[in-house]
Design a protein that fits this description.
224 residues, mainly alpha, two-stranded antiparallel sheet, 5 strands, globular
Length: 224
């Protein structure tokens, strides 16, 4: 639906605050569209560098969403988001990264509002990422696990996958930290955390998975 009352700018996705809600609109050819309108879901996409010097690849327009916007948006077309994800180049690493980051934002939004729909869509879009031996696929498994952990129980098959990933990425502190938390190995998580720089610690603590980290260790910085 075109909204002629908004002032169009350059072709881009823009956010507008209105009456306490956050509205996402696509400015295109001097018209402004609701990005969740069924008419545009399968027609609009973002193209990014593939990362391997080949042609640009299509990614979902919804990978631009942030947790704060998700919480404050009055209507989100979940089916449309998944449809848009399915149309992406799912085997491309940049696309996988975008899907992981979008799921990440829905998880963060859940932690603010405890809306189970946010976890459902996060899990649905993560399931679109093909299984492979790469870092983004590993993050997809970890994100699925933290969704189930919020629901109190990680399935045994995901635990098995986490253990395999941990073995494969022994030298990756971010992956080791996350898996240690997911598997309730707070002692190991604290050991990894204590070896990080202050900037890295702050970055790790801003991730949704950190809500499961044992803050009684004495390793965490003061929050005063």
């Amino acid at each position: 639906m075109v909204n002629r009352f908004l002032i169009p700018g350059e072709d881009s996705i823009n956010e507008y605050d209105f009456a306490g809600y956050r509205l996402h609109c696509l400015t295109l050819d001097k018209n402004v569209f609701n990005i969740f309108d069924e008419e545009f879901i399968d027609k609009v996409a973002i193209f990014v560098d593939s990362g391997d010097d080949s042609e640009q690849v299509r990614v979902s327009i919804y990978t631009t969403l942030k947790a704060d916007s998700i919480v404050r948006f009055p209507y989100i077309n979940y089916d449309g988001i998944q449809k848009s994800i399915k149309m992406s180049e799912l085997n491309n690493e940049r696309v996988k990264e975008g899907i992981n980051l979008l799921a990440f934002q829905f998880i963060k939004a859940y932690d603010q509002k405890l809306n189970q729909d946010f976890l459902d869509i996060a899990l649905d879009i993560l399931n679109e990422i093909p299984t492979a031996d790469d870092r983004n696929s590993a993050f997809a498994v970890m994100n699925k696990a933290q969704i189930f952990k919020r629901r109190k129980s990680i399935p045994i098959e995901l635990i098995s996958d986490l253990l395999k990933i941990s073995e494969y990425y022994k030298g990756d502190s971010l992956i080791q930290f996350g898996i240690s938390i997911l598997l309730d190995n707070n002692e190991q998580a604290n050991q990894i955390f204590g070896q990080l720089s202050e900037d890295e610690k702050e970055n790790y603590l801003n991730m949704p998975i950190s809500i499961f980290f044992n803050e009684e260790s004495g390793v965490l910085p003061s929050k005063t």
